[in-house]
């Protein structure tokens, strides 16, 4: 990705300090008009799900599978999947279904030596192999080697486990620095369903033009409104949202400035995942379509703080509360947009020069669906 390499922290901070001085922000070259029909058309929606299935998308952080035997089940692009780390530390992802009569093998997360189907006890190894069939003589000619769990392509890169559900090899996942560091551990995970199209929820992560009005009592006291550095890498984007304390870095040598504690980076991993950095924490969010007008947000929270560090823990829980309240404000806006779709007021939504990461998202989506990217 050399042509698309992301700037280093010092460069991003310098751009932010310039924007503060100039009362400016990064601007795209064009506005983007997205037809309302694209949020309402079932055929478009089905094509988007197919695109997610043939794209390498983050399934969970590596830290969600911390040791051999650790497993995690969830639905990705409508498909129930089961990720597991085997005895050799390799991650496999399988379709979450027993090969006898289809009972789902696992729900939630846990740690196991093998998967035993709770219906009739067919037993699978961590590598997916069918190891044991009770009273196997009832299945004459059963070829156990052909009845292991059905794998999907899995790849562990930079602290994330990616899955590609279609058989054809897709584009490799983007390289991503923040989770690459060893030592990050899971702080928690959660799922919630929101009554809005998945693209509306994605859009809410990708601009800082709404900080003052939507997040008046949550993020705005700590963050700049409409002041962002927006970068693209391939079909993906990174948006930097500076905190007001970024000004303390003016006293430091430009080359020594770090982004830690002075800004949030939101990485949009095309098409439907976000990685957001906060002080001491990283959020990995999968934006999972459930229906054309319903979306499940699957969130994993990671930290690099020690469990024994109680001061850090207190600060983390305070910060988590703020992020949750800010997130609820974004979800409320998404639902309000969804409810307006039937109003007939708009033929298109217009994303302005400050919302260029959203324009890039839609342009990439159009190209991918048209088969030109
Ligand atoms: S459905 Fe799993 S053992 Fe029968
Ligand atoms: Fe927001």
Cα distance, first to last residue?
A: 15 Å
| Helix content estimate | 10-25%
Q: Which CATH class of the largest domain applies here?
A: Alpha Beta
What number of domains?
A: 2
The SSE string, one letter per element, is HEHHEEEEEEEEEEEHHEEEEEEHEH
Main structural class: alpha+beta
Rg (C-alpha, Å) = 22 Å
Q: What's the tally of helices?
A: 7
How many E-type strands? 19
The CATH architecture name of the largest domain reads: Alpha-Beta Complex
Q: Do you know the CATH topology of the largest domain? A: Naphthalene 1,2-dioxygenase Alpha Subunit, Chain A, domain 1
- Sequence stretches where pLDDT stays below 50 over 5 or more residues: none
Mean pLDDT: 94
Ordered list of secondary-structure elements with their pairings:
Elements: H1 9-22, E1 32-35, H2 37-40, H3 42-54, E2 57-61, E3 70-76, E4 79-85, E5 91-95, E6 109-111, E7 115-116, E8 123-124, E9 130-132, E10 151-157, E11 160-164, E12 185-194, H4 198-205, H5 211-214, E13 229-233, E14 236-242, E15 263-269, E16 273-278, E17 281-291, E18 294-303, H6 310-340, E19 348-351, H7 356-369
Antiparallel strand pairs: 1-19, 2-11, 3-4, 3-6, 4-5, 5-10, 7-8, 8-9, 10-11, 12-18, 13-14, 14-15, 15-16, 16-17, 17-18
The structure holds FE2/S2 (inorganic) cluster and fe (ii) ion.
């Amino acid at each position: 990705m050399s042509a698309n390499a992301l700037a280093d922290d010092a460069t991003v901070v310098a751009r932010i300090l310039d924007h503060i001085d100039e009362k400016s922000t990064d601007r795209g070259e064009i506005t983007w008009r997205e037809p309302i029909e694209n949020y309402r058309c079932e055929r478009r929606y089905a094509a988007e799900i197919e695109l997610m299935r043939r794209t390498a998308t983050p399934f969970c952080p590596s830290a969600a599978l911390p040791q051999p035997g650790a497993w995690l089940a969830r639905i990705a692009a409508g498909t129930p999947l089961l990720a597991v780390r085997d005895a050799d530390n390799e991650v496999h992802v399988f379709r979450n279904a027993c090969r006898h009569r289809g009972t789902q093998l696992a729900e939630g997360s846990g740690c196991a030596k093998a998967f035993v189907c709770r219906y009739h006890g067919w037993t699978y190894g961590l590598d997916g192999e069918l190891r044991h069939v009770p009273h196997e003589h009832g299945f004459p000619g059963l070829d156990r080697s052909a009845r292991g769990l059905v794998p999907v392509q899995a790849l562990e890169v930079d602290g994330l486990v990616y899955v590609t559900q279609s058989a054809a090899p897709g584009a490799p996942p983007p390289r991503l620095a923040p989770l690459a560091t060893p030592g990050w551990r899971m702080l928690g995970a959660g799922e919630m369903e929101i009554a809005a199209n998945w693209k509306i929820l994605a859009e809410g992560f990708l601009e800082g033009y709404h900080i003052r009005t939507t997040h008046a009592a949550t993020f705005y006291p700590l963050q700049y409104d409409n002041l962002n550095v927006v970068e693209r890498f391939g079909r993906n984007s990174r948006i930097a949202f500076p905190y007001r304390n970024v000004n303390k870095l003016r006293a430091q040598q430009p080359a020594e400035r770090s982004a830690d504690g002075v800004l949030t980076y939101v990485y949009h991993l095309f098409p439907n995942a976000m990685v957001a950095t906060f002080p001491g924490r990283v959020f990995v969010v999968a934006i999972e379509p459930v229906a054309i007008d319903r979306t499940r947000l699957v969130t994993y929270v990671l930290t690099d703080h020690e469990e024994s560090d109680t001061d850090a823990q207190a600060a983390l829980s305070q910060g988590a509360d703020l992020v949750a309240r800010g997130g609820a404000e974004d979800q409320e806006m998404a639902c309000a947009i969804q409810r307006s779709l039937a109003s007939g007021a708009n033929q298109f939504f217009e994303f302005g020069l400050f919302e260029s990461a959203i324009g890039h998202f839609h342009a990439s989506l159009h190209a991918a669906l048209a088969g030109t990217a």
